[in-house]
Backbone:
């Protein structure tokens, strides 16, 4: 804005294109992430390294990443389309649309499987337990989904239903700051609590 | 729909609104070469860049030089990324030993990132080395965003300046944008995201065996530093395939809110920068209000539709909103909000799968892009796109008050209308024609994830997203040679073909004498004008895309109500 | 040669029967694609009509849906014909005018003067620079300036006004127009334009539309319409493969029907008619615009420069008072005033004589004007008023002289002679000026004799008019040769926004440039040769027909009535012209919404019966729905022809108010109207089993 010098020699701008690329690749492609990694590792080492949970010195999970739970004594997460199920190296969803026959069939069989696995469930079938998550590694389920599975877990563990329910209640994460997202239960933490492990 | 769901949207909007003035004013200072509180920190680097590039930051460029510099820089970036992706196997920082990308995928990805689209026909966690992510994609996230912003600044200068041929200096604008605007927010943002749980490391993936005996590889990498600029620059290309739905990119509802804020904030604040630079703040607010209204109208429809859920699923005995392809921690409200925000801007990052949205819930994101990515739009590209619609509206409205139309003192005449209409033609041309080719071509039908109208929606969404440089997808559509190549071409023209008429228009406006306003000039910040602007955008967009949308989401909605499946 | 001149008809009814009949034929003649392609929107429509006609002919052999194809084709043809008809009607009005003017251009003989001798030559052989004489009863053979004599001239053939006007050598009333008739006396005229380039020729070309060029805004709008047409072309062309995907191939006829409904045929069809009609409306006001661009520019005007005299005040100022300088007798002052004003033919001069003669001894006895003239000493030379000296007067044979004029000019003149710049009568001069009158000082070689009070008479209702202009966003500036005090008072009383006092051609020019530099468009009227540069500099210059040839050539409009207030009407017409275009564009585009709701469900009724939910108008059958939309699209053009020709209703208001009203009427109305129209047409079609 300060001067009226102008240039019409457009070809002169080829060299800056290359140079600007080189300089900024170093600045924003290398220096920036490396420095940020350094600071993050210092300030928030747990999160920066993936929120890994170890049991007996062995890493068993990441709190932020969902896992496949097969045993009846554990709460199960949502249907997953990541790889063969809950594969963080192959995240994925069904991407089936609302009028997809495949979606309706899959939902129907998910409902059937869920009802079969939870014969003594009394709650209505929770939506999130019969629909596939977006990431395929969703670590959470809704409180309703946990509650639906409570009778099965209780009977598999020979625990009282109330004890299971109160454990669920203790692990319901309310909406963040009171308004963000949905109330949810981290399946890993709930299952670890069932096993009496505290991370 | 719930009150708390709406509260979430309103608080996000409030947080964006609060940032509009300070960030907008800050950007105005930066691009006018004034000093800011960050000048002591970055001025040495700024000077070093000018020196190494051999650039005089005070040298003014006419529109075609500005255009040439933009295109030359983008061409270098395109070739650079293509080569990087084709050779990553031979390069360091590849702990998972990923191979080189195939030529067609490398082309698609390179174009995708240089155009700020960030369409992804691959999943980062099993395709790209850390080096490719950092020095390839994250670098493009900075620079392609900066290109958008500086072009918007050049366009604003075109309106603000009178009797001048020049639009500023591309290199100075780029340097300042990257250093003073993008980098500081990214540094703070990275730490905030790491705090919420986003990883930031260079480890190889860590394999764990779960309590229940399940083997799992925990993915890592320099994620947070890339995540922040992915949102801030409305890029949208995820480190992880499932993008911001993946819990390591977006672990909590709070990180979700912060990412949403990032992807909206620059596009929103640029309206204030605009007002500041044309010395009439009301003009900027008028744009902001028009954008906000369109944003909320879309949100109402999308949220209502997702909350109502899928009646066909309801018939199976499960009730509630549509949770297919959504994450439990976000739920319906935050997922609908994100879908609208990511398409109202040209971000394209997703926290839920648009492909699995209800028909109308999926229509809104698509329509948002079809309107020309101008609701907030991409950083920069949203503003100039919006301003071109303003010029068109001014032209029609101006005739209606009986004067040669003018905007901010610039008469809108033959050349301006010509360039504006050329610009507006690009979206329908590059969206509809390739969709038509794909819809009747075996290669185009080969990789559909759905059949019936929804399959058509997948094709339409893909080219809509590519032209609009959005990058979100109806992700059931799979890659093949046809889509890799054709979408690369569409993304390329969707971005660069717009630059030419846009900068030419800026140049034409800059060279004009300003005419004085009088009672005979209608005000362009009045409610009636905002309404007219929205009307023009909706009518032009709707009239162009209604037939196509009718055969996709609209008819699918009607069929969904009837319970028909495909 | 006829002896009686017909008056040019000034106005005709909007739909003269004769014009309509001619227009009907013309609208078919205009189907010739060589002309039609200049209007891309209607050209596409015509191509569509042709293609569907082809399908109809094929149907006849192959037993296809001949009835439907025929109906669509016929209505597409109608669409084009209706648009052509609108243009033809608009042109027809101009043609009727031109036809009349051409009759005036009879082959006249002229008395060319060569070497002082008159020779009879055909008018067509007169060339620029030659001179010819005209005597009473003869037609003037060519445009020119009177260089000798004075005559009353009947100009009704051109202006439509029957009252004869005076044309005389020198001054600002010297121009004569070929084709007008001299009623008295003899004048000698210098030819100013060659045959074929005369005023009459230009006027014929203009009203006929032969030299009509698209105006800048019209071109910009055409580009917008072409762009929209391309967008809809893409939308409809790609709909064909989309339909194939949906398993519901669409016939070309249906796609063409959809395309024609979507492209802006309403405004596309009426656009040129609007432009021609706008020019015609200007002509109805008896203003001859040299180009459509000028009319359009008039709508953009921000600043109007108005000459005080004739525009704001009645031309005639009257002398009401003579104030004596100290030590000067009434006899001396009155006599000087009288003598210096006797040769002065201006109304002001006359009024001074009327006032002063009874006070001067010899004036009292000279009752008749002829007698008064005799009082002027033989050999005196009259010094006429000029804008430079701002004085007039008399140089007496004995060496003495009398001057009267603008006070500062007269003072300076006296100072030059006597070295005395005394502020004689300064208070009185100021008092007169403050009261809105014009003070003149009267002096002879020795001293200032007195002051004359000239009173201005304001035209009635001018302040309303200026308020109206202010509402439209137009600033009025009064131009006057008066001193600032007088000007300020008149400006205040008349309600103009600003004034330029003691104006000279230079200050006037400077004012125009200053306004233009601050981004304003300036319009002015003028008649004198002095005004020519300013008229040329102004964005809109209106010359009075009574003015000089130079002024007329510099201006881009000529007011045949020589009425300076006409400029205001021209501005309104210019605005109305743009508004009509904008309103119909908005209407045309808004219409498309309803057409989609008619046609889209109809197209996919078979593939997706669910789509019938979008058939909000509940149209009877798919065929009737499509046909109704096409018929509406054609009929709306006819329905809007009167609006296109008359222009949208215009009231001078602020831009925002105008915008609000027009958006409501043409935008919102444009969305609603076709829903009703298409439904009605569908009901009629169904009632008569036409589909």
Residues:
């Amino acid at each position: 804005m300060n001067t009226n010098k102008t240039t019409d020699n457009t070809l002169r701008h080829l060299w800056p294109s290359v140079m600007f690329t080189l300089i900024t690749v170093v600045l924003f492609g290398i220096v920036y992430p490396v420095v940020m990694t350094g600071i993050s590792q210092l300030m928030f080492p747990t999160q920066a390294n993936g929120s890994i949970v170890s049991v007996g010195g062995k890493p068993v999970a990441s709190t932020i990443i969902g896992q496949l739970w097969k045993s009846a004594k554990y709460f199960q997460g949502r249907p997953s389309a990541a790889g063969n199920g809950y594969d963080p190296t192959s995240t994925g969803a069904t991407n089936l649309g609302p009028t997809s026959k495949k979606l309706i069939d899959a939902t129907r069989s998910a409902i059937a499987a869920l009802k079969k696995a939870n014969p003594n469930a009394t709650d209505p079938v929770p939506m999130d337990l019969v629909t596939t998550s977006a990431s395929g590694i969703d670590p959470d389920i809704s409180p309703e989904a946990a509650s639906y599975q409570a009778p099965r877990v209780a009977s598999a563990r020979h625990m009282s239903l109330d004890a299971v329910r109160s454990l669920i209640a203790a692990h319901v994460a309310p909406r963040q700051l009171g308004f963000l997202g949905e109330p949810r239960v981290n399946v890993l933490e709930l299952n670890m609590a069932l096993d009496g492990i505290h991370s | 729909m719930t009150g708390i769901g709406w509260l979430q949207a309103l608080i996000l909007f409030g947080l964006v609104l609060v940032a509009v003035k300070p960030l907008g004013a800050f950007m105005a200072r930066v691009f006018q070469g004034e000093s800011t509180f960050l000048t002591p920190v970055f001025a040495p680097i700024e000077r070093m860049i000018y020196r190494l590039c051999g650039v005089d930051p005070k040298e003014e460029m006419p529109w075609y030089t500005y255009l040439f510099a933009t295109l030359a820089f983008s061409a270098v970036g395109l070739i650079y990324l293509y080569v990087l992706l084709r050779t990553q196997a031979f390069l360091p920082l590849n702990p998972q030993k990923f191979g080189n990308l195939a030529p067609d995928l490398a082309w698609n990805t390179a174009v995708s990132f240089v155009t700020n689209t960030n369409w992804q026909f691959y999943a980062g966690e099993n395709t790209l080395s850390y080096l490719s992510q950092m020095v390839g994609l994250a670098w493009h996230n900075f620079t392609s965003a900066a290109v958008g912003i500086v072009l918007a600044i050049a366009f604003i200068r075109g309106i603000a300046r009178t009797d001048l041929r020049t639009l500023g200096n591309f290199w100075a604008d780029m340097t300042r944008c990257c250093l003073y605007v993008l980098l500081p927010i990214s540094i703070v943002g990275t730490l905030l995201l790491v705090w919420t749980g986003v990883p930031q490391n260079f480890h190889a993936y860590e394999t764990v065996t779960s309590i229940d005996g399940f083997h799992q590889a925990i993915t890592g990498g320099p994620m947070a530093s890339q995540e922040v600029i992915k949102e801030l620059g409305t890029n949208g290309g995820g480190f992880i395939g499932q993008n911001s739905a993946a819990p390591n990119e977006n672990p909590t509802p709070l990180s979700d809110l912060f990412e949403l804020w990032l992807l909206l904030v620059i596009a929103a604040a640029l309206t204030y920068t605009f007002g500041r630079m044309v010395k009439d703040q009301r003009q900027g607010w008028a744009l902001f209000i028009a954008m906000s209204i369109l944003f909320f109208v879309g949100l109402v429809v999308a949220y209502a539709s997702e909350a109502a859920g899928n009646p066909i699923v309801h018939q199976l005995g499960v009730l509630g909103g549509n949770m297919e392809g959504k994450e439990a921690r976000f739920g319906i409200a935050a997922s609908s909000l994100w879908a609208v925000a990511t398409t109202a801007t040209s971000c394209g990052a997703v926290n839920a799968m648009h492909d699995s949205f209800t028909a109308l819930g999926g229509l809104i994101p698509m329509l948002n892009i079809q309107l020309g990515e101008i609701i907030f739009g991409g950083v920069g590209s949203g503003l100039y796109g919006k301003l071109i619609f303003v010029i068109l509206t001014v032209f029609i409205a101006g005739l209606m008050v009986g004067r040669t139309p003018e905007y901010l003192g610039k008469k809108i005449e033959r050349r301006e209308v010509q360039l504006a209409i050329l610009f507006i033609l690009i979206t329908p041309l590059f969206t509809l024609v390739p969709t038509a080719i794909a819809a009747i071509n075996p290669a185009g039908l080969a990789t559909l994830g759905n059949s019936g109208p929804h399959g058509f929606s997948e094709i339409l969404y893909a080219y809509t997203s590519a032209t609009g440089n959005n990058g979100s997808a109806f992700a059931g559509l799979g890659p093949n040679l046809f889509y890799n190549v054709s979408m690369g071409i569409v993304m390329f023209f969707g971005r660069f073909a717009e630059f030419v008429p846009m900068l030419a228009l800026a140049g034409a406006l800059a060279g004009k004498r300003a005419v004085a306003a009088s009672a005979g000039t209608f005000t362009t910040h009045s409610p009636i004008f905002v309404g007219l602007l929205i009307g023009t955008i909706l009518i032009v967009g709707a009239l162009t895309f209604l037939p196509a949308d009718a055969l996709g989401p609209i008819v699918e909605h009607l069929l969904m109500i009837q319970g028909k499946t495909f | 040669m006829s002896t009686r001149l017909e008056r040019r008809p000034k106005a005709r009814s909007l739909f003269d029967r004769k014009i309509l009949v001619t227009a009907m034929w013309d609208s078919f003649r205009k189907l010739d694609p060589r002309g039609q392609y200049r209007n891309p929107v209607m050209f596409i429509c015509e191509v569509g009509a042709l293609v569907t006609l082809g399908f109809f002919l094929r149907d006849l052999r192959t037993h296809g849906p001949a009835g439907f194809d025929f109906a669509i084709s016929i209505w597409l043809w109608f669409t084009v014909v209706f648009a052509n008809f609108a243009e033809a009607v608009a042109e027809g009005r101009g043609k009727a005018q031109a036809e009349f003017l051409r009759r005036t251009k009879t082959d006249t003989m002229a008395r060319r003067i060569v070497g002082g001798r008159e020779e009879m030559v055909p008018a067509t052989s007169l060339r620029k620079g030659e001179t010819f004489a005209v005597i009473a009863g003869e037609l003037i053979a060519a445009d020119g300036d009177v260089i000798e004599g004075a005559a009353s001239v009947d100009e009704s053939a051109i202006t439509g006004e029957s009252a004869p006007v005076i044309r005389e050598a020198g001054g600002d009333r010297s121009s004569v127009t070929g084709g007008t008739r001299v009623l008295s006396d003899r004048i000698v005229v210098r030819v100013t334009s060659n045959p074929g380039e005369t005023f009459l020729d230009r006027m014929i070309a203009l009203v006929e539309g032969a030299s009509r060029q698209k105006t800048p805004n019209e071109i910009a709008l055409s580009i917008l319409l072409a762009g929209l047409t391309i967008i809809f072309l893409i939308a409809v062309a790609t709909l064909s493969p989309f339909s194939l995907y949906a398993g519901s191939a669409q016939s070309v006829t249906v796609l063409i029907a959809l395309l024609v409904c979507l492209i802006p045929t309403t405004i596309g069809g009426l656009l040129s008619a609007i432009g021609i009609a706008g020019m015609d409306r200007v002509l109805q006001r008896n203003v001859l615009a040299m180009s459509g661009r000028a009319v359009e520019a008039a709508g953009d005007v921000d600043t109007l420069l108005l000459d005080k005299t004739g525009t704001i005040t009645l031309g005639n100022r009257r002398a009401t008072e003579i104030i004596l300088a100290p030590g000067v007798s009434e006899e001396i002052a009155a006599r000087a005033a009288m003598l210096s004003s006797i040769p002065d033919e201006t109304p002001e001069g006359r009024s001074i004589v009327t006032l002063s003669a009874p006070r001067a001894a010899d004036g009292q006895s000279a009752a008749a004007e002829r007698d008064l003239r005799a009082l002027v000493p033989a050999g005196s030379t009259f010094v006429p008023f000029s804008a430079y000296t701002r004085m007039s007067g008399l140089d007496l044979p004995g060496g003495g002289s009398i001057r009267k004029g603008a006070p500062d000019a007269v003072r300076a003149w006296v100072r030059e002679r006597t070295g005395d710049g005394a502020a004689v009568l300064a208070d009185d001069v100021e008092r007169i000026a403050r009261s809105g009158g014009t003070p003149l000082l009267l002096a002879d070689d020795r001293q200032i004799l007195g002051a004359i009070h000239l009173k201005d008479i304001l035209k009635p209702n001018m302040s309303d008019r200026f308020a109206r202009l202010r509402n439209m966003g137009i600033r009025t500036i009064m131009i006057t040769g008066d001193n600032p005090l007088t000007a300020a008072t008149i400006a205040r009383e008349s309600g103009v926004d600003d004034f330029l006092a003691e104006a000279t051609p230079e200050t006037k020019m400077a004012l125009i440039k200053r306004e233009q530099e601050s981004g304003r468009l300036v319009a002015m009227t003028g008649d004198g040769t002095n005004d020519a540069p300013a008229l040329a500099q102004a964005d809109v210059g209106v010359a009075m027909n009574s003015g000089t040839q130079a002024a007329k050539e510099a201006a881009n409009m000529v007011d045949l009535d020589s009425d300076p207030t006409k400029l205001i009407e021209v501005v309104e017409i210019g605005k109305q012209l743009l508004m009509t275009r904008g309103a119909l564009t908005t209407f045309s585009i808004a219409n498309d919404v309803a057409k989609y709701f008619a046609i889209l469900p109809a197209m996919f009724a078979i593939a997706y019966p669910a789509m019938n939910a979008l058939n909000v108008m509940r149209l009877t059958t798919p065929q009737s729905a499509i046909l109704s939309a096409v018929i509406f699209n054609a009929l709306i053009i006819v329905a809007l022809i009167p609006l296109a020709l008359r222009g949208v209703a215009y009231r001078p208001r602020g831009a925002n108010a105008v915008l609000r009203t027009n958006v409501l009427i043409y935008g919102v109305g444009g969305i609603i109207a076709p829903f009703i129209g298409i439904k009605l047409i569908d009901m009629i079609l169904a009632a008569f089993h036409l589909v």
Remarks:
- Residues 1-7 of chain A have pLDDT under 50 and may be disordered.
